[in-house]
């Protein structure tokens, strides 16, 4: 039985659009005892990347917002 997922990406990474809280809720529903967020800042991510052709802004990782979100979720869950 798996009781911990040690590799979870959220909307804070370039390769996921799932909100962090949704990942936590799914882990709770699955009966996991814990998850590890492995979101990342891609320093060499192409500045011209435009996944949906509507948002030309380059990807940036907001560490302050990321840590605040984790702190908020720790208190709730």
Percent strand? 5-15%
Q: If strands are numbered along the chain, what order do they take across the biggest sheet?
A: 1-2
In sequence order, what are the helices and strands, one letter per element?
EHEH
Shape: globular
N- to C-terminal distance? 21 Å
Number of helices: 2
Structural class: alpha+beta
Number of strands: 2
Cα-based radius of gyration, to the nearest Å:
14 Å
**Unreliable sequence segments:** none
Helix proportion of residues, in percent?
Answer: 25-40%
Mean pLDDT: 85
Largest β-sheet summary: 2 strands, parallel
Name some characteristics of this structure:
single chain, alpha+beta, 31% helix, two-stranded parallel ribbon, 77 residues
Descriptive report:
- Helix content is 31%, strand content 12%.
- With 77 residues, it is of the alpha+beta class.
- β1, α1 (20-29) and β2 form a beta-alpha-beta unit.
- The longest helix has 14 residues, at 63-76.
- The radius of gyration is 14 Å and the shape is globular.
- The chain starts with a strand and ends with a helix.
């Amino acid at each position: 039985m798996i009781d911990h997922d040690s590799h979870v990406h959220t909307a804070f990474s370039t390769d996921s659009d799932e909100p962090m809280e949704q990942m936590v809720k799914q882990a709770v529903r699955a009966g996991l005892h814990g998850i590890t967020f492995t979101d990342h800042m891609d320093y060499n991510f192409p500045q011209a990347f435009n996944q949906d052709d509507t948002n030309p802004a380059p990807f940036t990782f907001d560490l302050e917002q990321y840590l605040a979100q984790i702190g908020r979720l720790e208190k709730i869950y």
